[in-house]
Amino acid sequence: MSGSLRIEIWSDIACPWCYLGKRHLEEALERFDGDVEPEVIWRSFQLQPDAPRFGEPGAGEPTGEYLTRERGYPPEQLAESQARLTAMAAAVGLDYHLELGKVANTFDAHALHHAAARQGLGDAMVERLFKAQHVEGLRLDDPAVLSALAAEIGLEGDAAVPTEADRAGVVSDLEEARGIGVNGVPFFVFDRRLAVSGAQPANVLLGAIEQALGADAPA
User: CA–CA separation, 29 vs 37, rounded Å?
Assistant: First the structure.
């Protein structure tokens, strides 16, 4: 097996399933024994593009309270769902504390990721943002928090400030997601030949990698 492979993942930092999907993809890549080096590219998606920005009313509210009030989730059902997801995350080494989650508009966090990716630190930034959201319960709309997280992976000063091009990159990702019909994340696209939706197990993602590299993969 030879050639190249680009794996694009549309995801939202606020989505706990996306962090789980990241671990499943990493396992699939560890198990992959082909002679290509897959290129992984993280694309921006917002589950709540209308979420309040930092300083606006409602920003920083506990996610559980927001989901109960705005989405109608009964607290007991939400707690049960979070416990089930926390157990799934623990199985791949993630220590979720979803009860600490806070409502935040993730646009600026996505822009920071684009800035990091431009400097070769995209995966490290995504990983740190996911951990901040789902393990530590930090506010990812807070400029001070974002600056601190950027510094932790080696981005400081101007390097940690997203440019207009970085922000335009987020918008481009969002528009492309709409264009190809992404309505849930994580959404994996393999060489623009096939797609897998959801935090699928590693064996499913490994099968998609092998199929995408095969001559009979659909366009």
Answer: 9
Total domain count, the chain: 1
**pLDDT in the model for residue 202:** 98
Q: Give domain status of residue 88, yes or no.
A: yes
- What type of residue sits at position 152? E
Cite the DSSP H helix spans in the chain. 16-31, 63-70, 75-90, 107-118, 122-134, 143-152, 164-180, 202-213
Q: What is the CATH number of the domain that holds 110?
A: 3.40.30.10
Indicate the pTM of the whole model. Answer: 0.94
Question: Could you give the 3-state DSSP secondary structure of residue 37?
Answer: coil
For residue 218, being part of any structural domain is answered with: no
CB neighbours of residue 99 within 10 Å: 14
Q: Give the pLDDT of residue 2.
A: 52
Q: Give the helix/strand (H/E) hosting 142.
A: none
Q: pLDDT per residue over 170-197, tens digit each? A: 999 999 999 999 999 999 999 999 999 9
Domain limits for position 62: 6-213
User: What would the pLDDT profile of 37-91 be if each residue is shown by its tens digit?
Assistant: 899 999 999 999 999 999 999 899 999 998 898 888 899 999 999 999 999 999 9
Using alpha carbons, select from 10, 208, 89 the residue that is nearest to residue 217: 208
